[in-house]
């Protein structure tokens, strides 16, 4: 755990060893506990407590043995807390499963419930819960890396505990365009105003962008971001397919009011920032507001806004 100084500096507060391959984390129980999703080499879920002095202590490791036929290995890719704070879900890309757990509010431990099964070969990667304005119905949107589909489910909370999911819609992560071969969906999130759903596509360079070198007129390849507008019944209406500004957008993030979106393009090692129209949801991808290049030496995996409250 690190603290952030006013000048942007980072200071270590506490630490603990974890299992390998952690790719996502979520805080729960009023930020008194953390859950980590481990993709591999040993797929797992690990839990930690955080005390009043910000000391991190190991609590529980949930591991997933390899299947006998090795045809559908677990690949835990994200930890997501539901809107009530009572449940946590973990999409497993390799097993075509979204694991569902109930959260103990006192011990912080997780109890497994019946999972959500995706269609075979879809590869669920990330998920977000959504409740519309003036609505009591909760929906779950799941983006599938291998199928390049977003599936919308109506969520039902069972009196005896657990969740059930009813599919209400399914859309392509390329909207109304043909899906390129060997492309893989990645990040997905809601806009800060809760009105739009945005996902990224990798390895499907359907666009080009200006060269970062002002003396070079050669256009560079660009992957894409897709925007949908959820409706009250959980269905998704296509809004736009926009440029990511580079190759293999693994992650993106919006500023506090959603007027800007920063895209981390993994293989081209650049971050592009575009303006967003808050009313229409359109990403103004004709020209980047700002761009940072050559962000190596390794692959670019994540981008985070830091704004004063």
Automatic annotation (TrEMBL):
<dbReference type="InterPro" id="IPR050282">
    <property type="entry name" value="Cycloisomerase_2"/>
</dbReference>
<dbReference type="InterPro" id="IPR015943">
    <property type="entry name" value="WD40/YVTN_repeat-like_dom_sf"/>
</dbReference>
<dbReference type="InterPro" id="IPR019405">
    <property type="entry name" value="Lactonase_7-beta_prop"/>
</dbReference>
<dbReference type="InterPro" id="IPR011045">
    <property type="entry name" value="N2O_reductase_N"/>
</dbReference>
<dbReference type="Pfam" id="PF10282">
    <property type="entry name" value="Lactonase"/>
</dbReference>
<comment type="similarity">
    <text>Belongs to the cycloisomerase 2 family.</text>
</comment>
<protein>
    <recommendedName>
        <fullName>6-phosphogluconolactonase</fullName>
    </recommendedName>
</protein>
<dbReference type="GO" id="GO:0017057">
    <property type="term" value="F:6-phosphogluconolactonase activity"/>
</dbReference>
């Amino acid at each position: 755990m690190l603290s952030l100084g006013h000048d942007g500096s980072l200071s270590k507060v506490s630490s603990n060893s974890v299992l390998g391959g952690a790719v996502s984390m979520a805080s729960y129980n009023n930020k008194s506990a953390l859950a980590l999703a481990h993709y591999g080499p040993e797929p797992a879920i690990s839990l930690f407590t955080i005390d009043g002095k910000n000391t991190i202590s190991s609590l529980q490791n949930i591991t997933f043995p390899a299947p006998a036929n090795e045809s559908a290995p677990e690949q835990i890719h994200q930890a997501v807390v539901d809107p009530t704070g009572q449940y946590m879900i973990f999409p497993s890309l390799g097993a075509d499963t979204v694991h569902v757990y109930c959260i103990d509010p006192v011990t912080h431990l997780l109890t497994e419930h019946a999972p959500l099964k995706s269609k075979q070969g879809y590869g669920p990667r990330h998920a977000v819960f959504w409740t519309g304005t003036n609505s009591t119905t909760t929906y779950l949107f799941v983006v599938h890396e291998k199928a390049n589909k977003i599936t919308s489910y109506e969520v039902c909370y069972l009196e005896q505990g657990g969740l059930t999911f009813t599919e209400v819609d399914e859309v392509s992560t390329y909207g109304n365009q043909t899906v390129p071969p060997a492309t893989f969906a990645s990040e997905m999130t809601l806009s800060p105003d809760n009105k739009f759903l945005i996902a990224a596509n990798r390895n499907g360079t359907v666009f080009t962008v200006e060269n970062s070198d002002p003396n070079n007129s050669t256009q560079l390849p660009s992957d894409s971001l897709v925007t949908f507008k959820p409706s009250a019944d959980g269905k998704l209406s296509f809004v736009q397919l926009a440029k990511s500004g580079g190759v293999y957008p693994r992650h993106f993030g919006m500023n506090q009011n959603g007027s800007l979106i920063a895209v981390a393009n993994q293989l081209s090692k650049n971050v592009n920032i575009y303006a967003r129209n808050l009313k229409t949801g359109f990403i103004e991808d004709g020209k980047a507001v700002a761009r940072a290049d050559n962000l190596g030496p390794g692959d670019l995996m994540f981008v985070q806004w830091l704004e004063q409250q």
